[in-house]
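Bit of a strange request maybe. I'm writing a small parser for structure token strings and I need a real example to test against, not something I typed by hand. Could someone generate the tokens for this chain?
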Amino acid sequence: MIRRDQWSPVDGVVLEPNAMSAATISGESVVVSAGPGAGKTELLAQRADYLLRTGECPYPRRILAVSVKVDAARNLRERVRRRSGTQLAARFDSLTFHAFAKRIIDNFRPALTGYNALSPSYRIDPDTRIDGEQITFDDLAPLALEIIEANAYARGGIRQTYSHVFLDEFQDCTDQQYQLIKSVFGPTTTILTAVGDTKQRIMAWAGALDGVMQTFAYDFSAQPLPLYQNFRSTPRLRRMQNRMISRMDPGAVSPVEESADDDGVIDVLKFDTEYDEAREIATLVEKWLEEGTPPHEISILVRQQPHLVAAVLGRELTLRGIPFRNEQQSQDLSAEPAAALIFNFIRVVATDRQPHAYTELMRVAHRSTSSENESARFDSRLKGMLRSARAAVQSSTFETDDPVGWGLLTEEFLKLVSRPVLTALSPGYEQGTWLDDVIEQAHKAFYRELAVDGDVGQALRRLSEVDAIRILTVHKCKGLEFDKVVVLGVEEQLFWGDPIAAISEFFVAISRAKYHLVLTYAKHRDRPDGVTTRWDSQRTPHQEFLEFALEELS
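Reply from user aminoacidic:
Good idea to test on real output. This should exercise your parser:
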């Protein structure tokens, strides 16, 4: 432990003055408004390090971070581990709102009575509720709120656990989620730090609370601290972003260098059809990969319906052997440790030269609570099982495109790892059927990708966050950044509806790019087979949005 005045940002990170104030403030809550690339995740990681290293968060109390998205929660958890080390990071809980609400339900479930009473083995389904047995994701926050409001023991237990709370991407918090936070932590001695960017408030469709950051500042007497610097994008891209900010929120325009520094690339590409678009973008992706850009630094963004709008591009990428992840199906799954364990097992037994996968698999499966002799015996059994599974996969009788064979191997592996070890991988696995659901989803995802070309290595690369480019919606890309970003279909037929929501989403998309931004539009897009909803084949470029880029290129 060190004195407060001895602390400085770890790993050589430099924080702008307001960020340094937010990281080290004591005794009061803060609300941080920050634009894209301002380092919101880094700020929270440094604040966690400050609180843990100086004893501001005294042992055994903990820090709770609550995010809207799975990726954001995972990224923050990993950043804190890198900055503070595993020992201090063990007192840092990074959860989504859904996971936080579920933890409350699992810990205090008997407090739910009547219509909302749940059995110990309750399940979560995306759409259907069954009294007592099954709830939906939308039920989580209201049920947790009911527990908190009715049960003083539950409130007290959570308040005693956490001395500090972080709220990430807070502009996208819904009314029910905010009421849950307010009921648990206000008014208390708990110190809250909320960060967000109102220019990126794109979750209105899901009930995001209008003005939530101002409401939070009032309810928790939080000090406002704006962040201005953009550490992510090159000067050319920052100038484009600033032009958009001046339209959306003139008072938030960031200082931007007025020099002739033109570092960064912006392209606006016009096509006659989506087939021309697919060939050109696939060629561009090939060029980036050949030049050494890692696949995970390349992203294709679509405002909506990527399975339709990017379908032709997906087929072109597949023909060229370029792995890509359909984030609409894979993003949340990739954050699940049980799924990662299954994919690493298949990598180790089915493909060559996988030292990282092997090391990670052994680390996760290792029984750290066992004695030295027991641990050695288990490691020996696990290595023997891996050798046996690898031999089976390489035998002439093993059909690599047969799900049954893979299912038997992974079932044997998971049985050896044991249920208690698997359950300990995530708090969400401790109750209900979520662990079994994740295992089933991981198998289905692998089989789905395997069916594309029958190539196990390619299937695993498409499921990887490292070895595949990513095709995802603007809603899914929040909190992420990429060296190369292609925004597909900057057209009125895609960026339609409420003008404020549309420009906010376009801003989120273009601000993901660190160096190279590509905007495309096509004059014609064929109606995909089986589409029964509205689909306009003739397309119109969204001139207002494109102009932000064209002004920079003129």
